[in-house]
Amino acid sequence: MPPGRIRVDHLSKDAYQVAVRGHRLVVDQPSDVGGDDTGPTPTELFAASLASCVAFYAGRYLARHGVAADGLRVEAQFTMATDRPARVAEVSVTVDVPPGLDTARRDALLAVASNCTVHHSLQQPPTVRIALGPALDER
């Protein structure tokens, strides 16, 4: 798949294969809601996308300043809204930094990590269009 393009194909029940460039992953639902739990849910990937973007930016900051990323960890916790429409209500992201970073570096790392692309995309949401394509037998 070319950059910026993602394809999702049905596998079975609630499982789907996601193709991103040359990579493949499976999304599914937990078994207690009818899935086979063969992969994370799309909502979990949503939170994981933010957490991994924050981690990437933090890691790049550390590399630029000659600091090893050993011990860098990012965790995200999300909660769902209790009303409709179904959606994520809140995501909290915590960055555990490598030992030995002084206050100035910690503050700078937080500023850089907070400027990751996914975070900006959530703060200034993109226009989303969902449309139907032709049926498979019409292609």
UniProtKB/TrEMBL annotation:
InterPro entries: KH_dom-like_a/b, OsmC/Ohr_fam, OsmC/Ohrsf. It comes from the Bacteria. Coiled coil: none annotated. SUPFAM superfamilies: OsmC-like (SSF82784). Gene3D superfamilies: 3.30.300.20. Pfam families: OsmC. This is Osmotically inducible protein OsmC. It comes from Kitasatospora griseola.
